[in-house]
Design a protein that fits this description.
With 333 residues, the chain is an all-alpha fold. 78% of the residues lie in helices and 0% in strands. The protein has one domain. The protein is globular and about 60 Å long. InterPro entries: EmrE-like.
């Protein structure tokens, strides 16, 4: 397994783990809302992004208006817009419907990514996709039971918001990969920092609107350390691990792997999320959850093998093609 491929795989799996920490947010913020948590998290992430930008030499050449506009747009669709649609879906459709629909993301992204890049033949991709789909169905099987639907307020609003979240994340992954491919000279850390700053700016811009709609509890509960200390600590911790490190790892994976494979690997977020949820709730997994996680992992492992074999075959074919050329042409290429 070549170095770039290995780095991309580990980066994608780490990003999946980092993003899965979002599942524990409702259990650690107390009386504050997820909007309060998102505000603290994105502002802290933006400050870290600014520190990264100011600490690197030669960064000013990358701070063009085009790059700022691109990263702000990506931050809107991939972080703020995605967060608002997911949260709205959870409010209207309950806490289990939204994750069930978001399980469509890796499937849709893998299909679109492979259609665009033709990374592997479709016959090799079908089995990993089927395993991932079966695993997601088993894990989310409880979502559509009577118990799972008990907290539903309006499926007519919640399901469209969940589908909008799927569309936003798929759009973000494809647009982010294309933007980075168009900027090969741009360091991943700088691109990540620009995106983090964009997300913080957008959350600050949204705060007056959200406060007018009573979405934030900070004005009522207080901004002081005595009242909001735990919110600041958890917000800062997850900002550093889940947002800063997660965004950086995702960008590293996007630069080293085709979209179709990163889509398959990010599904590990669901497995990590299930494990984290079981720890928080202090219970053992059901047989269906065990089977779902095991099949998901099998799908991820098979995806890595399929893409690695395809990459190896492509490298060998290119080497054989170059070896058949005259020496001068080989050197020129």
């Amino acid at each position: 397994m070549d170095k770039r491929f290995s780095i991309g795989v580990f980066a994608a799996l780490f990003a999946a783990f980092a993003f899965s920490l979002n599942f524990v947010v409702p259990f650690i913020i107390g009386d504050y809302s997820t909007f309060d948590f998102a505000l603290v998290r994105h502002v802290i992430s933006a400050l870290v992004g600014l520190c990264i930008l100011f600490s690197r030499t030669g960064v000013w050449q990358h701070l063009t208006l085009r790059n700022w506009l691109s990263t702000i747009w990506l931050a809107f669709i991939g972080y703020v817009g995605y967060f608002l649609t997911v949260t709205g879906s959870a409010i209207f459709a309950g806490p289990v419907i939204a994750p069930a629909f978001l399980g469509l993301v890796p499937i849709v992204l893998a299909v679109i990514g492979n259609q665009r890049q033709e990374s592997v033949p479709w016959r090799f991709l079908m089995m990993p996709l089927m395993l991932v789909l079966i695993g997601l169905v088993l894990i989310n099987g409880a979502a559509f039971t009577v118990e799972g639907l008990s907290s539903v307020h309006s499926l007519w609003i919640g399901i469209p918001l969940a589908l909008a979240a799927v569309a936003l994340w798929v759009s973000f992954a494809i647009a982010n990969e294309a933007a980075m491919a168009a900027r090969p000279e741009m360091p991943s850390a700088v691109w990540s920092a620009l995106t983090l700053v964009g997300g913080g700016v957008l959350m600050l811009a949204f705060y007056p609107v959200g406060a007018a709609m009573d979405l934030f509890q900070l004005p009522q509960l207080g901004f002081g350390w005595d009242a909001a200390g735990s919110l600041y600590l958890w917000g800062s911790s997850l900002a550093l691990l889940a947002t800063v490190c997660g965004v950086w790892a995702w960008n590293v994976a996007s630069r080293n792997l085709p979209v179709a494979l990163t889509a398959q690997l990010i599904v590990a977020e669901t497995a990590f999320g299930v494990i984290g949820g079981l720890i928080v709730h202090g219970r053992w997994p059901t047989a269906m959850e065990c089977a779902g996680v095991a099949i998901l992992i099998a799908g991820v492992v098979l995806s890595i093998r399929v893409f690695h074999k395809s990459r190896t075959r492509s490298s060998k074919a290119l080497s054989q093609k170059l070896s058949g050329l005259p020496r001068g042409l080989t050197a020129a290429s």
